[in-house]
Amino acid sequence: MRNRVILCEASEIIANGLAEVIDSMAQFDVVARLDNPAHLSEKILATDANLVIIDPSLLGFQNKEFVTQLGKEHPGITLVALATSCLDHAMLAPYGGVIELHDTRSKIIGKMNEFVKGDNDRKNDDVELSKRETDVLIAVAKGMMNKEIADQMNISIHTVITHRKNITRKTGIKSVSGLTVYALLNNLIDENELI
Predict the structure, then answer these.
(1) Is 143 left (phi over 0), alpha (psi -120 to 50) or beta?
(2) pLDDT value at residue 35
(3) What domains are defined for the chain?
């Protein structure tokens, strides 16, 4: 099944270049391009898109709220940030991945495959995290480092790393930002708890 992609980027030059790279991949179709996010939710429904690439700077101060709300409205969607400028880490945290302006064609292709690979893995299994894995996931989503998690839970760093490997295996999510979105969408943390 081909993945249906929506691009939300104000710059026509950037949007056209990224669309050309994505359309060159057999398993992807760019089904819509928007220059602002005003009608993004409706466009997702109309096109049955499963991946949205959006420039976070278009959302301004409503970035986290917008991404969280969109994730609740469309739980099957993968949201990817298109970093066209230098952005704060906190602004990128709610996204399932990031494509950067300086990424090469091959790097973009690799990232696109990773975005949908993680989705397919998650669709194929019902994710069952243990209580301790859930606790570690919540700590990771809150921005804690392995040492901090180990100290807080009175376990070794090695155990924390093992839990993180199990979380990645079970969810198919490798990035901290992706795990944060997962925790938000599964109501494991509240967006007010994020740094």
Answers:
(1) left
(2) 92
(3) 3-124 (3.40.50.2300), 131-193 (1.10.10.10)
| Cα–Cα distance for residue pair 169/147, rounded to 1 Å | 21
Location of structure tokens 């807080």: 152
Report the SS3 class of residue 171.
helix
Task: Let me know: does 29 contact 2? Beta carbons within 8 Å.
Answer: yes
Helices of type H across 31-175: 40-47, 63-73, 89-92, 105-124, 131-141, 146-153, 157-171
Joined tokens for residue 74 = 């469309």
Instruction: Tell me the pLDDT tens digit for each residue of 159-192.
Output: 999 999 888 888 878 788 888 888 888 888 877 7
Q: Order of strands across the sheet with 3-8?
A: 28-34, 3-8, 51-54, 78-83, 97-100
90 beta partners:
none
Supply the DSSP string of 23-67, one letter for each residue: HTSTTEEEEEEESSSTTHHHHHHHHT-SEEEE-GGGTGGGHHHHH
pTM: 0.59
